[in-house]
Amino acid sequence: MNPHLDSLQPYPFQRLRQLMAGAVPADKPHINLSIGEPKHPTPDVIKQALVNSLGGLSVYPATLGSPELRQSFADWMQRRYGLQLDAEKEILPVNGSREALFAFVQTVVDSQWTEKPVVISPNPFYQIYEGAALLAGAEPFYVNCTADTAYQPDWASVPESVWARTQLVFVCSPGNPTGAVMSLEDWKKLFELSDRYGFVIASDECYSEIHFGQPPLGGLEAASKLGRGFERLVMFTSLSKRSNAPGMRSGFVAGDATLLAKFMLYRTYQGGAMSPTIQAASVAAWNDEAHVEENRAAYIAKFQAVTPVLAEVLDVALPDASFYLWAKVPGGDDAAFSRSLFEQEHITVLPGSFLARTAHGINPGSGYIRIALVATLAECQAAAERIVRFVKTTNQ
């Protein structure tokens, strides 16, 4: 067996199930705000394209994807970021960002270095970053993101000896779970570090289309604004959040053509080719913005309804983007708060400490909960009222 498997940590939702084991919830409708799974309907334009392309099930897919698919990616990047990308060399389809993030690490990390390679991750983080690093034979290094740094990684906290071994740095903007967005100055600092130490940047941007009217800056966009090329930089995105299509497992990566050529080679062996049926539906999705605007408006309505209500009892504010609220809870015990909330109000949220690791003396997720506003507006409003009642009752 691969010995690195023994270093993997339980996934946050496995820990959540363990936390809730034996808990008896109140006899109230369950509202699940723990998992970042979009619940808005998948748009008809996507479903119809899927049905119209069922004939593709009889065809082996090409790893590179169809020219039409890659062009839809390039056209969207032009509309969204004002970037002209080479659809043949700088873009590659993937089966959702999760598998791509994992596979990319296996492509990039050189475990034959004389010193153990390092993969740097923000903390809190999406656990795939950690698992991918461990299974590639690298050492994860966690950079805390706290309120003191506006939930951006504190790059100054990374020792020179760690930078010297770093091969890959993950960033997530808008961030999961905080919703924080990197500024152009943030990107400039990271690019300067990449130039100095030679590491690759993997920019996870899967929440980029859930915002409040100001589209978040992307990594490739930042490079262009700063007069750079895309060297050592790859961005990841998908249709899951943008188009309410998590079951399609469809997305793409874009950036450094040299890196993507190697990633393409890896994927021809890995088997990460997208079904022609999914490709056709993906083209329809990337070519349509109307459903994205409707989706965004639905999230904005939920944030406007819920955030001021929760702010009565929790330390919480609108994020820069994404569909999460990152709320500081009274008393500081996020796990106990989450279990009691489930028992008394039948609402499930995710303890923030489950999304982070103890690093440099603290767990930066401790004392927070992540609230995913994925349920209906009515359910989110009801949940907010019940959370307020719960906090007021327990603090009496």
From TrEMBL:
Keywords assigned: Aminotransferase, Transferase
What the entry lists under InterPro entries is as follows: Aminotransferase_I/II_large, DapC_beta/gammaproteobac, LL-DAP_aminotransferase, PyrdxlP-dep_Trfase, PyrdxlP-dep_Trfase_major, PyrdxlP-dep_Trfase_small
Source organism, top-level taxon: Bacteria
- Check the UniProt entry and state the signal peptide residues, or none: none
**Which cofactor does the UniProt annotation name?**
pyridoxal 5'-phosphate
Q: Which GO terms describe its molecular function?
A: pyridoxal phosphate binding; succinyldiaminopimelate transaminase activity
- Keyword Transferase carried by entry: yes
- Taken from the record, one Pfam family name reads Aminotran_1_2
Name the UniProt record assigns to this protein: Putative 8-amino-7-oxononanoate synthase
Please give the organism: Aquitalea aquatica
